[in-house]
Amino acid sequence: MLKLLKNKFLWLPIIVALFIGAYFSITAIPSTHVKVNDLPIAIVNEDSGATGENLTKQITETTSSSNSSAMSIKWTVFDSEKKLLKDMNREKYYGAIVIPKDFSEKLQSLTAPNAQKAELKIIINQGMGTAVTTQVNTALTQMTTQLNNKLSTNLLQNVANRSTSIPSTMALNLSNPLTIKKEKVNKTGDLANGGAHFFQSVWLGSLGTSMLLGFAFSKIRFKSLKEKFSALFVQLIAAGISALVIGYGVPALQSWILDVNIPNFTELGLFMSLCAFAFIIFINGVESWVGIISIPVFMLLLFFAAPLLTAVPESLNGFYSTLADWLPMSYMYRGVKSIMYFNHGPANSVVMGLIYTIITGLILIITAQFKKDNKKEGSN
C-alpha cells in the first residue's frame, strides 16, 4: 500500500485536475464577475441658460445606473459637442448626453402659444464595444426619461400655481416636455467584436507557423555560428512571408465566408501582419530555449487571453488589468478596433508594444544560437 502511494502517477492526475480547475476558474472570472467601475461618460452643456447648468449638475450627481451593482459612472463635462466627438474618436468615452444651445429657450416656450419641445441628445460611441454601449444606452435612456418626468411635474406645478386652468394643448406639451434624440458614432457595422473576430485565427496561425519553422531547423546540425545565423535569416524571411499571408488572408477569408465588408482592409491587413510577425518571432524565441513544451503553454494562453480581451477595461481589477495590458495579443485587439471602428491607425503604445515583443523574441532567438548543440546527427 505504501509503495503504491509513493507512485508519482497516482498523484499526477490529482495535481493535473487541480491545475486545470484552477486555471479555467481564473480565466472565467473576467467574464462572470462583471462590475464596471467609473465608466467614462460625458455631458455637453451648450445651453447658456440657468436650466442647462442646473440640469448638468443634476445629471452629474447621478453616479450609477439604475442597477448600481453593475455599473458606476464617471462624468466629464464639456461645453462643446465638437470637443466631445474629438475625444470619442480617441476612444475616451462610451456615451454622452448633450444639452443644446436653445434648451432653456424651448423649455420656456412650452407655456407660450408658439410652444417647441426642448431636446436632449444621447450619443453612443458604439466602437467602444457593443455589449457595454448597449448598457450605456439603457442607462442614459433611463436617466433622460426620469428627467423628462421630473421636468414635467415641475412645469405643471408652476403653471398650476399661476392659473386655475391649463389649456389642453399646453397640458399635453407639459406632460412630455422633452424630445430624446439618439445618435451612434463610430458604428461597428457587420463585425461588432473587433479584434475578437481575428484574434484566434491569427494567434493559432502564428503558433502553427512558429512550430513548423522550429521543426524545419531542429534536425539540422550546423558546423558553425555562420551557418546558424544564415539559417536564422532564412527563418526570419519565412516568418515575414507567413505573417503577410496570415495578416491579409484571415480578414479576406472571413470577409468572403461571412459575406461582410471589412473597413480599411489594406491598413488592417498590414497591421495584422505586424501582429502575426511579432507573435511568430516571440513564440519561436521562447521555443528555442524551452522547447516543444512551450507550445501547450501558448495554447493555454489563448483561453486565458480571450475573456480578458473582450472584457470592459473598467471592469477589470488591478491584477487582470495589468495582465491585459502586457499580453502580446492585447496589442492586436486594441489596434484592430482603432482601425476598424475609429478610422485611425493604432496608438503609438500599441505599435511600440509589438516592436518590443519582436525585439524580445529576436533576443531569445539570437542568444539561443550560442547554446551547445546536442544534435548528434543532422542534415544540411
From TrEMBL:
Top-level taxon of the source organism: Bacteria
InterPro entries the record matches: DUF3533, T7SS_ABC-Transporter
Database matches in Pfam families: DUF3533
Keyword DNA repair found: no
Any one Gene Ontology cellular component term annotated for this protein: membrane
Primary residence: membrane
Ranges where the DUF3533 domain occurs: 13-367
Residue intervals passing through the bilayer: 9-29, 198-217, 229-250, 262-282, 289-309, 350-370
Compartments it resides in: Membrane
Membrane topology: Multi-pass membrane protein
UniProt keywords, alphabetically: Membrane, Transmembrane, Transmembrane helix
PANTHER family, alphabetized: PHAGE INFECTION PROTEIN, TRANSPORT PERMEASE YVFS-RELATED
Name of the protein in question: DUF3533 domain-containing protein
Lineage of the organism: Bacteria, Bacillati, Bacillota, Bacilli, Lactobacillales
